[in-house]
Amino acid sequence: MFEDALILAGGLGSRLRPLTYAVPKPLLPIGEKPIIERIIENLRDQGIKNFYISVNYKGEMIKNYLKNGMSLGVNVYYLEEEIFTDTAGSLFYLPDDFRKDLLIHNGDVLSDIDLTKLYQVLKENDFDFVITSIKKESFIDFGVLEFDNKSKQLLNWKEKPTLNFYLNTGIYGIKKETIELLRQEKEKNIKLSMPELWDFLIKKGKKIGIYEHNGKWFDIGKIDEYLKVNEEYSGT
After folding, report:
1. Fewest CB atoms within 10 A around its CB: which of 11, 159, 172, 196?
2. How far apart are CA 55 and CA 225, in angstroms?
3. What is the model's pTM?
């Protein structure tokens, strides 16, 4: 089971401006608590004991709020990025002696994800990295045509279809050996996005798995989404 988590909390939160001019996105309140506090409480209640929090933009505010994590019953350590390293670059800032499987969690998403099931997918299927996904549906209120691009001949059509697709939730599991491989192959002070990490792992012949989450998941990336989530957590 995971005992350690990396929370990515160093982003600018540019899509939530002007709210994030004053505070970093992880400290924006959802109901009566900041986003990051709700994330920590959820993960703590599922066995996470140690939290590594990557900070950059307005990082001192996050450090002043959470301190060492004692008030939440956890251990909090800070990874202070020298540059903005994107969504995967903060892995390089983990302590040199870190040798554990790790949960990675975006600092702007809330969910009721089952960490035990995620860990089982990582270990039992011998994956090197696991991406948590969630199924979404999109209704198209038009007829959708399929045709040959060259001849322009109609091949098929769907009248007002509902399309199913799977989103990346921003919650991941990574094996300790995968972290070590990354450290050996890449330099510390680089920007590295999650898609770039996946590409690197696939080229190295590593296995990336998918865990399908069927519960709640909220992405607090834009103003309208932030207001919607606050309605969900109103009074809590």
Report:
1. 159
2. 23
3. 0.89
